[in-house]
């Protein structure tokens, strides 16, 4: 969700830049199996998220692929259709990288997945997935292949591509379901080293301890470096069988003319005019250009992109670009009612949207399409940003009926409201007393929610479309506090006591308003207690007679629900934290038909 990006400050700008310019391009790693380029000194090295095809687009720039060697997860000779929008790739080109040139060709493309393993838990409120001990963050621009945000479950095996964050978390640009792989398949993660102990042969990635005593490191280890690991989780420790240092330096590669390095600054020495990205040092000078910032803005935790030029093996930082916060202004689904290929626009819900070279297109079969592939009456999901009064499409997905009618979210600026409806993204949505209303992550009454509304705020609404195009909502969410606050970034320890309003937080009525944080979590039960309580994802959950409980899609009583629970049972819970930090369940669901029973990765 939108606030999950805001709560992790180091995610700032991985997707878009300032002033309406978007940028996913960067080289922050040399993927496993990539050989140093062997072309002439005009070779350009780029790395970033695929935004389109025909042939391949990175950062809005097209690279033809007629003679390109494509390697996917170590397998050379792959076809172009093995690549998907959202994958982070490395690309080399022997052509001039002039942004105005449209005839650059790629000599090689390498995709190497960053994370792969079994989902341990999901926090849909924060937009976070726990996988192989790493917290993976997703948002409206993450591409889900073979699954979706709502259908993804604990126990599913996925592969992900994206960016390793300095705090050990991982931002996913691409997530693909991989349930066809055997359970014995090793898991792999990418992250930033902390607390390295060379004698004990351990370090941490985020909160996950890594034991690399059984691996031979490919590269010298140090804190703040980015690494990729393969192995298994045993007793809550990731035991690595393979360990690769992802080096973004280009020494002794004399044939490279230009390159880009993007990542999180881990150290700065202003006097020496050096900075470190993932623990690797780069020197800048008085001739270095700065974009969207200045030298005094360089600091640990800031995300930057470096443009590098090379001369006789020496690299020079020619430009430093400060990456700005990626903000999506809206998301909606609807039917296309008008198309204008010449203007590069289409209309949904009486609202006109415009595409550009950086719009990410995706078809219902997970393949790439373009604007001229769309037709009237197509069902689409659109994520957009408002720039100079126009709705610029960041991501567009054409959906089939199954995808379109499953539960989804509408987001956008509030343009009108009454006592029983709101209008956003060209869609008027009815409000009922049965829906959940969240104000700054706290559950409130319908009347309290309406009292806080003002035109121009961004509203999030969850629900379902029907065959008539109507949207029935079950949850409304409004955040009035500063979006850059990180008070919910830990996703699990906030008991709501900082709200300074405990007058109605009695913890007695799950169906009424509470002042505690509202959560949507899914995970395996770790303990079952008395009085209709159990523990999941570190939360003590309380079930009461007011809770809406489902067992394999059937409404059941609290007694029946608790009888179905034991250690390892996968449970999905929605509810509010009371002043004691107990999660009061408004809804809870168990699907015992899911037979993915391995739980030793918890």
Automatic annotation (TrEMBL):
<feature type="domain" description="DUF5666">
    <location>
        <begin position="262"/>
        <end position="321"/>
    </location>
</feature>
<protein>
    <recommendedName>
        <fullName>DUF5666 domain-containing protein</fullName>
    </recommendedName>
</protein>
<feature type="domain" description="DUF5666">
    <location>
        <begin position="117"/>
        <end position="176"/>
    </location>
</feature>
<feature type="domain" description="DUF5666">
    <location>
        <begin position="333"/>
        <end position="390"/>
    </location>
</feature>
<dbReference type="InterPro" id="IPR043724">
    <property type="entry name" value="DUF5666"/>
</dbReference>
<feature type="compositionally biased region" description="Acidic residues">
    <location>
        <begin position="481"/>
        <end position="509"/>
    </location>
</feature>
<feature type="compositionally biased region" description="Polar residues">
    <location>
        <begin position="23"/>
        <end position="42"/>
    </location>
</feature>
<dbReference type="Pfam" id="PF18914">
    <property type="entry name" value="DUF5666"/>
</dbReference>
<feature type="region of interest" description="Disordered">
    <location>
        <begin position="481"/>
        <end position="515"/>
    </location>
</feature>
<feature type="domain" description="DUF5666">
    <location>
        <begin position="411"/>
        <end position="475"/>
    </location>
</feature>
<feature type="domain" description="DUF5666">
    <location>
        <begin position="522"/>
        <end position="587"/>
    </location>
</feature>
<feature type="region of interest" description="Disordered">
    <location>
        <begin position="21"/>
        <end position="42"/>
    </location>
</feature>
């Amino acid at each position: 969700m939108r606030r999950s990006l805001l709560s992790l400050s180091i995610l700032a700008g991985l997707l878009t830049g300032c002033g309406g310019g978007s940028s996913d391009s960067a080289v922050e790693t040399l993927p496993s199996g990539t050989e140093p380029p062997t072309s002439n000194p005009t070779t350009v090295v780029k790395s970033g998220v695929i935004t389109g095809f025909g042939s391949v687009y990175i950062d809005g720039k097209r690279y033809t692929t007629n003679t390109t060697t494509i390697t996917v997860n170590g397998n050379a000779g792959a076809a172009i259709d093995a690549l998907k929008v959202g994958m982070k790739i490395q690309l080399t080109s022997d052509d001039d990288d002039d942004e105005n040139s449209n005839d650059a060709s790629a000599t090689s493309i390498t995709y190497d997945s960053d994370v792969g393993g079994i989902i341990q838990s999901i926090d849909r409120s924060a937009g976070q997935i726990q996988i192989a001990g790493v917290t993976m963050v997703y948002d409206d621009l993450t591409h889900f292949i073979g699954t979706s945000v709502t259908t993804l479950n604990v126990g599913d095996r996925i592969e992900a591509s994206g960016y390793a964050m300095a705090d050990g978390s991982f931002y996913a640009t691409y997530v693909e379901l991989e349930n066809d792989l055997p359970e014995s398949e090793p898991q792999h993660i990418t992250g930033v080293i902390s607390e390295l102990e060379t004698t004990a042969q351990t370090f941490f990635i985020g909160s996950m301890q890594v034991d690399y005593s059984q691996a031979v490191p490919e590269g010298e280890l140090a804190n703040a470096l980015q690494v990729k690991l393969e192995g298994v989780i045993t007793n809550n420790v990731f035991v690595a069988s393979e360990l690769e240092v992802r080096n973004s330096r280009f020494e002794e590669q004399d044939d490279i003319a230009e390159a880009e390095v993007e990542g999180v600054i881990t150290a700065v020495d202003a006097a020496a005019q050096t900075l470190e990205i993932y623990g690797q040092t780069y020197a800048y000078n008085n001739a270095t250009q700065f974009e969207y910032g200045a030298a005094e803005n360089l600091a640990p935790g800031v995300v930057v992109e470096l443009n590098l030029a090379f001369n006789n093996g020496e690299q020079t930082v020619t430009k430093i670009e400060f990456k700005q916060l990626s903000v999506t202004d809206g998301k909606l689904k609807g039917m296309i009612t008008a198309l204008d290929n010449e203007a590069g626009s289409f209309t949904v819900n009486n609202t006109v949207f415009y595409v550009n070279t950086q719009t990410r297109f995706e078809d219902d079969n997970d393949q790439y399409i373009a604007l001229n592939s769309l037709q009237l009456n197509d069902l689409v999901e659109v994520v957009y940003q408002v720039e100079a009064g126009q709705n610029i499409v960041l991501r567009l997905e054409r959906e089939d009926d199954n995808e379109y009618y499953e539960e989804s979210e509408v987001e956008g600026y509030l343009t009108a409201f009454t006592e029983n409806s709101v209008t956003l993204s060209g869609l008027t949505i009815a409000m009922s007393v049965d829906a959940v209303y969240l104000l700054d992550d706290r559950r409130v009454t319908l009347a309290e929610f309406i009292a806080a509304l003002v035109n121009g705020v961004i509203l999030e609404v969850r629900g379902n479309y029907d065959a008539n195009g109507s949207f029935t909502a079950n949850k409304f969410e409004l955040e009035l506090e500063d979006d850059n606050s990180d008070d919910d970034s830990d996703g699990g320890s906030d008991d709501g006591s900082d709200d300074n309003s405990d007058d109605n937080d009695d913890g007695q009525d799950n169906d009424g308003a509470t002042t505690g944080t509202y959560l949507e979590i899914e995970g395996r039960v770790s303990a079952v207690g008395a009085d209709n309580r159990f523990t999941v994802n570190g939360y003590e959950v309380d079930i009461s007679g007011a809770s809406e409980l489902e067992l394999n899609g059937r409404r059941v009583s609290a007694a029946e629900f608790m009888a179905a629970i034991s250690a390892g049972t996968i449970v999905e819970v929605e509810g509010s934290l009371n002043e004691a930090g107990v999660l009061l369940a408004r809804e809870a669901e168990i699907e015992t038909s899911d037979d993915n029973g391995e739980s030793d990765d918890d």
